[in-house]
Amino acid sequence: MPLMIVQQKVKDYRAWKKIFNAAYAIRKASGERSCKIFRNTEDPNEITLLLEWDDIQNAMKYSQSKLFKEAEKKAGAITEPILYLPEDGLDT
Fold first, then answer.
1. Quick one: CA dihedral 48, 54, 58, 60, positive or negative?
2. Which pLDDT does position 89 carry in this prediction?
């Protein structure tokens, strides 16, 4: 299954995590299979997510959706997410 890595800085990790958890059903319905969260030891508000998806196209569709963008704002994202996709998921 395809993996996506997301890096982002948030205002407050705990506030972000509540909203992230609340969106679980939406992410699952969009094709997310699992997610691991990593926090920077020097700045715990800097996060990295390792997400497993059923299909790379579903991952891209979700990451570009209005729903995702709204949740990001509500959760206190400071930076735009940096997305990393597996090489075989890219069109190049």
1. positive
2. 54
Length of the chain: 92
Type of residue numbered 71: A
Domain CATH for 64: 3.30.70.100
Angle between helices 13-22 and 66-75 (to 10 degrees): 150
- 89, part of any domain: no
Tokens of 56: 């790379």
Domain that residue 40 falls in: 11-75
pLDDT tens-digit profile of 23-53?
899 999 999 999 999 999 999 999 999 999 9
Are 82 and 4 contacting, i.e. CB atoms less than 8 angstroms apart? no
